[in-house]
């Protein structure tokens, strides 16, 4: 067996030893530090007589700009 083949064999064994234990547990190395996302607040639907509607987080305000044809959202 040549040195080139031995290098490939050593690389394969190294990859096996590093990744096989995490594959058995069903997780990748990066997923150990993953945290679940925080639940998002319920969004509120703003409806206007001008026939537009928009959803925004609680505490935000929405109003139309008739001259420009835009809707403004103001919040934190």
Helix content: 25-40%
Overall, the morphology is rod-shaped
Report the mean per-residue pLDDT as an integer.
Answer: 75
Q: The biggest beta sheet, please?
A: 2 strands, antiparallel
Number of domains: 2
User: Number of DSSP helices?
Assistant: 1
Q: Radius of gyration over alpha carbons?
A: 28 Å
Oligomer kind = single chain
Strand and helix order: HEEEE
Could you please describe the fold and organization of this structure?
With 76 residues, the protein is an alpha+beta fold. It has 2 domains: 1-35; 36-76, no CATH class. The protein is built from 1 helix and 4 strands, in the order αββββ. The chain has one helix at 3-24; strands at residues 44-48, 52-56, 61-65, 70-74. It has a two-stranded antiparallel sheet with strand order 1-2. It is rod-shaped and about 80 Å long. The chain starts with a helix and ends with a strand.
